[in-house]
Amino acid sequence: MHFTEPLVLQSGASIANYTLVYETYGELNADRSNAVLICHALNASHHVAGLYEGDPRSTGWWDNMVGPGKAVDTDRFFVIGVNNLGSCFGSTGPMNTNPETGKPYGADFPVLTVEDWVNAQARLADVLGIEKFAAVMGGSLGGMQALAWSMQYPDRVRHAVVIASTARLSAQNIAFNDVARQAILSDPDFHGGDFYAYGVVPKNGLRVARMIGHITYLSNDDMSEKFGRELRSGEYKFGYGVEFEIESYLHYQGEKFSAYFDANTYLLITRALDYFDPAAQYGGDLDKALAGTRAQYLLVSFTTDWRFSPECSRAIVRSLISNGRQVTYAEIDAPHGHDAFLLDDERYHEVVRAYYERIWHEIGKDGRS
């Protein structure tokens, strides 16, 4: 979907003539009441579920959650996945040509916020004729977007499903993001963000950034169980190459990431994570920030998620309850750390399934009244 009208951003900058790439699953019902928006996290995209024809490796990033008969049942719901502005998977971003210069945006692409993404998504919903979503759902950074939707467009969200997320990053989280960005910014091939003109990619910086991030997505227990102190060759080599299995795994993840992700997009998205703090304009009072919400909520956290800990979700729950909102909260005892929101824990999926069953019955009841 192409948009010509400028989108005014929180920074005061604006962007016009941009494109949002999206995918839909299922069918929109007659009264357009069964639409569900799925918001993606850092390195995901609009491709939420299913396979692309002819590509058996193209499984959607939340395929275990979304699809026919799954927790978010596309036999019932019309699900929309949108690739956020600034990403590198089809929507307009730093890799694309700036119409004012005829060259890639690169470092000139404006800094974005979670709120900017929500406003862009709302424009897409307008064109699709969806006045109100049955649910807006996301995990991690996607959960921030779901929460922001319920604040920015309270009359357009029936339910907000916020998984493994937070209302603001901790100082430790901001620190990890900055170290990852510095790895990219200090890569000689970055060229101040304009590396496209040089025909290079700051792969070393991207590798290190991904390795840092991946450490934070796993729990210590999960890492210990999967890798422990296992050596690749069974003995020390007394050097500085890859010797431990955990090192091999991180190097593999970094190499894979550097082959498909854009460095400028990584900077943009991690900065958007840092900036998200809806309570800031209310003196840090989250109760006041959520006072205008009208949605019902499902929040899910995972006990070993130390990046977005259960306490982050509980803080949101407390503020919602203080405002008289209807809230369901599940804290899942799972060993997988932050990545648990992408995995197949049966208890977690059953919580989501039961919640969407309730949404489905609400839609049916409203449709009959």
TrEMBL record:
Main location: cytoplasm
Positions annotated as active site in the UniProt record: S140, D305, H338
Claim: Transferase is one of the keywords in the record: yes
Annotated metabolic or biological route of this protein: Amino-acid biosynthesis; L-methionine biosynthesis via de novo pathway; O-succinyl-L-homoserine from L-homoserine: step 1/1
Single Gene Ontology MF annotation: homoserine O-succinyltransferase activity
Domain AB hydrolase-1: 34-342
Name of the top EC class for this enzyme: transferase
Cited SUPFAM superfamilies: alpha/beta-Hydrolases
Function: Transfers a succinyl group from succinyl-CoA to L-homoserine, forming succinyl-L-homoserine.
Complexes and interactors: Homodimer.
Protein name: Homoserine O-succinyltransferase
Species annotation: Oxalobacter paraformigenes
